Amino acid sequence: MAKYIGPACKLCRREGEKLFLKGERCYTPKCAFERRAFAPGQHGRAGGQGGRSDRLSDYARQLRAKQKARRVYGVFERQFRRYFGIAKHRSGLTGLNLLQTLELRLDNLVFRLGFTVNRATARELVSHGHFMVNGLRANIPSMLLKPNDVIGISERSRSLEYFKGLAEVAEPRNVPTWLERDLKQMTGKVLRIPDRSEIDGNLTEQLIVEYYSR
To answer: Please, which residues bridge with residue 133 across strands?
Structure first.
């Protein structure tokens, strides 16, 4: 399974805004974006993402929208393109279908349920086999779930230190209305497919559709 191993804050700086890839740290002064809010590279300080945004071409805006979505969900280009193909062949709006597909990834659902502070940690825990789907062990972060699927923590993993205090840590974290969480049982359920208003409003799916439709 391929994964990005570089500095997460560099991705935020490249997009010119916080993508909250490191969880709670992004809300503190320790966040690198707070100290260096300009694009990485030798020309980043001189221009910066914000300084060039009003002069970006249509292609550049489309590319940045696609790259931003990829980085938010932690998906590489080949897989992201495959998700676009899935979305394109479904009925309805292609852009919305794409975002809904990304939201239904197992690692994203573990994050949305508050079981981890970010998607990178969720992806690692899932790949190590700590979670189950409908009572069966699941270790594929990209696994796509559907309504009525139930996510739980494996019995063997419940004895680990991380999961012992997880209920108290997860409790203050809000859960989307399209999901249901049971902190006593440490399970989560997909109630329905999310609406557009329940997905990150900073993502511009129309630009992504335009990028792949060139």
So the answer is: 136, 151
pTM across the whole model? 0.79
Contact 87, 101 (CB under 8 A): yes
DSSP state of 137: E
What distance in Å separates the CA atoms of residue 151 and residue 145, rounded to the nearest whole number? 9
Architecture in CATH for domain 8-101+200-212? Orthogonal Bundle (1.10)
State how far the Cα of 119 lies from the Cα of 128, in Å rounded to an integer.
14
3-state secondary structure of 180: strand
Q: How many CB atoms lie within 10 A of CB 50?
A: 12
CA dihedral 28, 31, 37, 43 (to 10 degrees): 170
Distances (CA, A) of 208 to 80, 105, 144, 164: 11, 19, 21, 41
CA atoms within 13 A on the CB side of 26: 16
Inter-residue contact 151 to 143 (CB < 8 Å): no
Contact 9, 32 (CB under 8 A): yes
Q: What is the DSSP letter of 158?
A: G
The 10s digit of each residue's pLDDT in 22-81 is 555 544 555 555 555 555 554 455 554 444 555 789 999 999 999 999 999 999 999 999
Q: Please state the domain extents for the chain.
A: 8-101+200-212, 105-190
- Topology (CATH) of 105-190: 3.10.290
